[in-house]
Write a structure and sequence with these properties.
Blueprint: E1 2-5, H1 16-32, E2 37-40, H2 56-71, E3 75-77, H3 79-86, H4 104-118, E4 127-132, E5 137-140, E6 146-151, E7 163-166, E8 169-171, E9 175-177, E10 181-186, E11 195-203, E12 211-221, H5 239-245, H6 272-280
Parallel strand pairs: 1-2, 2-3, 5-12
Antiparallel strand pairs: 4-6, 6-10, 7-8, 7-11, 9-10, 11-12
Helix pairs in contact: 1-2
Length: 287
C-alpha cells in the first residue's frame, strides 16, 4: 500500500491541476511496482493562518483529490473532512505556534483515519467535491445554476435521502451518477435575487447511517447591495447580526476570534467603531 497525502503548504503554492496530475503520476508509478494507493485530502488550516485561513484553497484541493480517487477507482482517506467538519474546535489538534501541522493528538487522529480505510471501516459521512458558484462569491448571474458533486467512499450514497435546499426551501433536482458519486444540478425556475444560501442533506447506506446536513455555498446575485452591519447578509440589519458580531468584539486581525465580517471599517480590529456602524443601520433593510 502507498498512503499518498499532499502537503498543505503545497496547496497554496501549486495549481490544483498540477497537484492532481502529480499525485496521479505517483500513484501510476506505484501501481507499476505492485502497490495500491490510498489518496488523502489535506489538513485544514486554522483561521489564524497567514494564508487561506478560510480554507477556500485547501478545500478546493481536497475536492480535486476526491475526484481523482473516484475517477481512478482508488481508496480515499479524508482528513480534511474529519478534522474540519467532524471535529469541534479542530484547532486543538494543532500546536499553539503552528497553524498547519497537527500535534500528537492530531497525528493520532490521522492514523485512525488511515486505519479505518485500510481495515474497511466506514466512519465518514458523504463529502462534497466541485461546488459552484463558489462559496462567498458575488456578482453572480440571477440565472446561474447550482452544481454540486457528492461522494461516498464507504457504503455508498442513499440517493432517496439526498435533498437540496435553497434559502430554506427544498427544491426538486435530478441526481445523476451512482451510489459512489452523484452530480446535483439545479437551475432556478425564477431568477435568484439577493443572497442565495444552499444547503445539502444526505446520508450513506451504512448501518447506522452517517448523515450530511450543512450549508455548502452562499453567493450574492449581481446588483445586490448591503447595509453596513448586515453581517448575515439577509438584507436586514437586526438582532441576528448583533448576536454574530458580539463574540468577535475586541478581536484583532490574527486572533482566533477575529472575523472579517465583523470588522466593518476594515481597520484590523473589531471595536466600538464597528458597533456604531451596525447600530446606525439597525432595523433597516436593503432588499
Amino acid at each position: 500500500m502507498l498512503l499518498l497525502m499532499e502537503g498543505t503548504n503545497d496547496g497554496n503554492k501549486i495549481s490544483v491541476e498540477t497537484i492532481t496530475a502529480n499525485l496521479n503520476e505517483i500513484a501510476r508509478k506505484a501501481a507499476n511496482r505492485g502497490l495500491r494507493t490510498v489518496h488523502a485530502t489535506l489538513f485544514p488550516r486554522q483561521p489564524s493562518a497567514t494564508n487561506d485561513g478560510t480554507n477556500q484553497t485547501t478545500s478546493a484541493v481536497s475536492a480535486a483529490v476526491r475526484e481523482l480517487a473516484f475517477t481512478q477507482q482508488r481508496q480515499l482517506a479524508d482528513p480534511f473532512e474529519v478534522f474540519y467538519n467532524e471535529t469541534p474546535n479542530f484547532a486543538a489538534l494543532y500546536s499553539p505556534a503552528d497553524h498547519v501541522h497537527p500535534n500528537a493528538a492530531g497525528y493520532d487522529l490521522l492514523a485512525r483515519i488511515f486505519a479505518d480505510v485500510l481495515t474497511n471501516v466506514d466512519s465518514v459521512a458523504p463529502v462534497t467535491g466541485l461546488i459552484s458558484p463558489v462559496n462567498d462569491t458575488s456578482n453572480i448571474s440571477p440565472a446561474t445554476s447550482v452544481n454540486i458533486d457528492l461522494y461516498d467512499f464507504g457504503a455508498g450514497l442513499d440517493l432517496a435521502n439526498t435533498k437540496l435546499n435553497i434559502n430554506g426551501q427544498d427544491v426538486e433536482t435530478p441526481l445523476s451518477g451512482s451510489q459512489r458519486k452523484v452530480e446535483i444540478r439545479y437551475t432556478p425556475t425564477t431568477p435568484f435575487v439577493g443572497v442565495v444560501i444552499v444547503r445539502l442533506r444526505s446520508r450513506d447506506l451504512a448501518s447506522p447511517p452517517h448523515t450530511f446536513d450543512r450549508e455548502v455555498t452562499q453567493f450574492i446575485i449581481s446588483g445586490t447591495t448591503f447595509l453596513s452591519g448586515d453581517i448575515d447578509r439577509d438584507g436586514r440589519v437586526d438582532g441576528v447580526d448583533l448576536l454574530v458580531f458580539a463574540p468577535t468584539f475586541g478581536a484583532r486581525k490574527g486572533d482566533s476570534r477575529y472575523r472579517g465580517f465583523s470588522d466593518i471599517n476594515n481597520d484590523g480590529v473589531v471595536d466600538g467603531k464597528d458597533l456604531a456602524a451596525l447600530a446606525a443601520n439597525f432595523g433597516k433593510s436593503s432588499f
